Predict the structure of Crp/Fnr family transcriptional regulator.
Amino acid sequence: MSEGDYAMLRRLAVFAGLPDVEVRKLLGHMAITTVPRHTTLFLQGDPATRFYIIFEGWVKLYRQSADGHESVIEVLTGGESFAEAAIFDESVYPVSAEVVCDARLLEVPGEPLLRALRSNADLCLNIMSAMSRRMRQVVHQVEQITVRSSVERLALFLGQLAARREGAVELHLPIDKALIAARLGMQPETLSRSFSKLGSYGVKTQGSTVIIADVDILLTLGKDDEDLCPPRIDRCS
């Protein structure tokens, strides 16, 4: 594991505050994997044996009805984790997970983690903190859908994708527009209209390429005043 990967893990609530020796002991049971696009990690109803932390890339969580209709539940990127809750109640995965942009993932097997939890109160508190923070993030996302316009949500997403860049920027959308719409809580046709409205703020699209005349102007429109830091938005290579 690179120093950058380790530093990112240490910033996650699960590992925050734990001594290095404890973190590295836990990492001995985990594995970093590089997973290509379109790989299914698990299916809805499979036994929940592990959860995942995303270093890079994008993962789609979805449910499929009996008639084959797919509903996207969430689209996640670097610095986010998923499937923890299913591990702790030793049940099955309530959703399916598919890599939608080449990803580097940390696989966390459930059994060694559960053994560690039984003997480490600090780790238990960290897990509770991580799940609490995750719940607050979900509430925050729902609130954003309620109080922000679709144009503002898209502006914030593009601003995060630009990641500390200034002035004129050309971006490549990391995932399909339908998945971006799902992440932002809107229909694909609403996303298209929102891109059109951002034209007056200097945003142009050419397929999956987005040209932003001035990132600062865009960030003013999508400024996020919440205390919760949004996850890093990864760009696919």
Q: What stands out?
A: The domain at 3-144 is CATH 2.60.120.10 (Jelly Rolls).
